[in-house]
Amino acid sequence: MRCDDVTRELATPSGDLDPADLAGHLASCASCAGWASRASDLDRIWEATRPAEPSADALDALWAHASAALDARTAPATLRFEAPGRPRRRAALAFALASAAAVLFAASALFRDRAPDAPKVADNQVASPPVRATAPPPSVVKVNVDVDQIAIVRIGEGGPRVEILDETPLFASSSLADDTPHDRFNAWESMASR
Amino acid sequence: MPEATIRAMETDEALVRLAREGDRSAMEELFRRHWGVAYRVAYRLLGHDQDAQDATQECMIKAMAHLGDFDGRSGFRTWLLRIVTNAAFDAGRRRKRRATVGLGSAEGDAGGFEPAREDDPARNLRRQDLRNTLDTALDKIPPKLRKTFVLFAEAGLTYAEIAEVQQVPIGTVMSRIYNARTKLQSYLDGVEGL
Questions:
Q1: Chain B contacts of A14, Cβ < 8 Å?
Q2: Residue of A12, A63, A193 with shortest CB distance to B177
Q3: What's the complex ipTM?
Q4: Is B192 among the domain residues?
Q5: Residue of B54, B148, B151, B163 with fewest CB within 10 Å of its CB?
Q6: Cβ(B165)–Cβ(B157) under 8 Å?
Q7: What is the pLDDT along chain B (194 residues), one digit of tens a residue?
Q8: Which of A10, A43, A46 should one mutate to test binding to chain B, selecting the residue with the greatest count of B CBs within 10 A?
């Protein structure tokens, strides 16, 4: 019987070793006997320092607190929209949308200015039917952004191009601070399941 | 037969099913049944009464609020202790373990449950010394070993249940327990038990 097998059996009993053989080895092996003695010391210290469980009264108080907290969780979450940071986010969203609208307006004005002028008509000439300038089709860009995002509209040769930025540094901290307990709970769960 | 007595006879699985259907007394029974073991595990991981109470209460409320996420693949206690160990560990990482020096717990931490088990102050002091020594030793071993050993020695989970909590093979669990025990024993060598 190997000493390693003996100490492993003592630490994590599996029943693989015959108890009589185990006792015989411990009686004849000072090293394993010392290990077993230290194991007993650890067990005694562990037991002696085991924290007490709450009394019935303490549990009553804990449950009352928990029950109230659970009730609060099931209440309509209207406060969510009043939480600190939300107005700032709404302002950011409004700013982003307003910026996008302004850029689009400027872009359409630019295209309108570049449209060919109608031909001039000499005083003595019969006016030909007016030539309607052919402006490029209106550029409509639909931008869907969330409260944590910023839309950047870039005007280039190929027309407007939209870029969505997620979690800009400006808002990253407030986003973290606003994590709901449910979010954090899900994070735990995903960590635990990894 | 009083409702509380009936509830106490129900299995965890039955209580979870009832609690999910909105039965608050079933939820209360689950809470009362498992608060103590959750607290003891949190205490062993955090080394501080008040921190352990806070972490436990927070975890219990979250677990009760998210019973719908419990898939029933493991037992309720296993699922709960997975939440508690992860939460306690996150809390420990954030705040580091506090040095529990002096007579804090011997005199009773604020809000702690520790009753005066002995009238003998010297014996209480001795217990507190042991607790500090064991906390220091636990702090020295790697986190994975500590979590595994605490789930085994304090919560009394089986190897298979710990493997479920930690998502590792049973052999790894047994190896971690052995290594944790060997290290703890060497750190505590020479310390006299009560």
A1: 174
A2: A12
A3: 0.84
A4: no
A5: B54
A6: yes
A7: 566 666 777 899 999 999 999 899 999 999 999 999 999 999 999 988 899 999 999 999 999 999 988 888 889 999 999 999 999 888 877 766 454 433 334 333 434 565 545 567 888 888 889 999 999 999 999 999 999 999 999 999 999 999 999 999 999 999 999 999 999 999 998 777 65
A8: A46
